[in-house]
Amino acid sequence: MRRALAAAVLALLAAAPALAAAKGAAPVPERRGTVAVARIDGSINPASSDYLQRAIEEAAASDAVILLIELDTPGGLVASTQDIIQAMLASRVPIVVYVAPQGAWAGSAGTFITLAGHVAAMAPGSSIGAAHPVGIGGGPAEGEGGRPPVEVQKAENLLASFIESIAKKRGRNVQWAEKAVRESVAATAEEALALKVIDLVARDRAELLEWIDGRIVETDQGPQRLLTAGAPQHEIEMSLLTRILNVVVDPNVAMLLLMAGLLGLYVEFSQPGLVLPGVLGAGCLILAMIAMQVLPFSWVGVLLVLLGAGLLVAEGFVSSFGVLFGVGLGCLLIGGMMLFDRPDLSDLKLDFWGVLVPVVIGFGLCAGLLVYAIGRVARRAQTAGAEQLVGMIGVASTRLAPSGTVFVHGEYWNADAAEPVEANERVELLAVEGLRLRVRRAPKRS
What we know:
By secondary structure, this protein is an alpha/beta fold. It is built from 14 helices and 17 strands. β14 and β15 form a beta hairpin. Mean pLDDT is 84; it is low at 5-24 and 135-141.
């Protein structure tokens, strides 16, 4: 009996590997359908976030084999990035993130999105990383003693834990992901592949779809085999309104719109009646306000920009010998630097040398020309009104003895003369006293 039991146990142990192999060899569900394609070329903001979330929903509704996100971004808003990541992790459709074309960049927020894909790929010559919160000037913000401010430290810790969880979820290099946030490390496509940050490097979309054909990816519904070779492609386009908002909600564009709006209103108020500068200025300000409803901004920066514009306007009416003008330009520069400096909420920044300085200089030149023009007009002798009649030659309509009427400059005036002047004699106007003229007999022509 014991021998029979032992033989049965040995038989089960011997069959266990075969049973495990049979279980492991269970067929993986194949996923067929169209390839839905979404394209992000710019910052990550509410507009691009809504677009990607809609793309994920459309891909699921059409039962696409994958959603291919072609990505080229310098970064974006933290809240928008979180919304995109949540939608990607909950997606029923496998998502392939492809950093392309060659030379593209998955910077900052783009790093999070790339790591969150079921498949992460990059084109040769592209790069990924540098996800540290930024401050004024584009580098890591520093506080007293060289230590980052408290809000930057909080942002760094939160983002580090966020990217670690994403990397663990997708089985990617957790240590490198943390360094991308804490130390701003970056990597080329080839380096990222060697570090196991991404899955493959592909020259173009066609090669990418060929290489991932037959690849098994883990989803919330279990493993799925992707059949992408020769699959029809479906482009998901941004709506017109989303495109406009996507362009406007860029700190550089928002700053340009703000300064253009202030300049347009300045020209309209300085030269009333032109209409066009006022209309264009108001339109630019409306677009700038729309952008600032989306972008995290500093009220101190806004007030400094408005103060600077006000001081430039005041220079045209107050003789400060350029002091107000210089202080106004300084306020514009400082306010512009502070305007979108919110590293705890966004890694988007205003280009100081490429945008802010040229815009402030251009605004200053335009304002200076207007101040100069207004000054010349103010210093010019008056050429309108009754005073312009002084020195003119007219004709006595009646006898002046000593009062009567004269005809001058197309009008009849009551006039007084120190000595009698006969009718039809030429008279010279000496002064305007209210509604009466003081005249004398004009010198005879030589």
